[in-house]
Specification:
Number of helices: 4
CATH superfamily of the largest domain: Scaffold protein Nfu/NifU, N-terminal domain
Strand order of the largest sheet: 1-2-5-4-3
Distance between the termini: 37 Å
CATH topology of the largest domain: Ribosomal Protein S8, Chain: A, domain 1
Strand content: 15-25%
Radius of gyration: 17 Å
Shape: elongated
Helix content: 25-40%
Number of domains: 2
Length: 183
């Protein structure tokens, strides 16, 4: 198995591409080892000393590290991924929670539908290339609240991405939007 790695804008995260599907629908974030208990792959990754976060996208795995160097950490991560796929274990031992998937539930206003469509078609594909995800959380009194995951969470450039990129685009296409904030 050949696993490619890619740097992300967040120096504390690295994107791993195993060359096969990771998640068939949605995304899932594991901010700590306790949350990883429901994923055999995430549990293996957290067993590598220095791993502090794991995120699964459609065809990639983003790993966040603590105060250690990637040179010493990458071999253990690569080994854990290869071991997982060789085992035949599922990625998740249970389905992702509704808040972790991209699926929308319930009726939304026309403005919220427009926001979600722009996020889905223009923003999410771009941030997935950087090993992260941004999902809609809420729209209230002109303010769009977004949840940042994977490489986007804690990234030094995330504020610039939100303000200069996403906020400007949403304000351009949807006059009701006045601001974008991370939750």
């Amino acid at each position: 198995m050949f696993i490619q790695t890619e740097a992300t804008p967040n120096p504390a995260t690295l994107k791993f591409l195993p060359g096969r599907d990771v998640m068939t629908t949605g995304t899932v974030s594991f901010p700590n080892a306790t949350a990883a208990a429901r994923s055999p792959l995430a549990a293996r990754l957290f067993a590598v000393d220095g791993v502090t976060g794991v995120f699964f996208g459609a065809d990639f795995i983003t790993v966040t590290k603590g105060d250690v160097h990637w040179d010493g950490l990458k071999p253990g991560i690569l080994g854990a991924i290869v071991e997982h796929y060789a085992s035949g274990d599922p990625i998740l031992s249970e389905a992702p929670a509704a808040t972790e998937t991209a699926a929308a539930t319930g009726p939304d206003s026309e403005v919220v539908e427009q926001i979600k469509e722009l996020l889905e078609t223009r923003v999410r594909p771009a941030v997935a290339q950087d090993g992260g995800d941004i999902t809609f959380h809420d729209f209230d009194d002109g303010v769009v609240y977004l949840h940042m995951q994977g490489a986007c969470a804690g990234c030094p450039s995330s504020t610039a991405t939100l303000k200069a990129g996403i906020e400007n685009m949403l304000r351009h296409y949807i006059p009701e939007v006045t601001e974008v904030r991370a939750v």
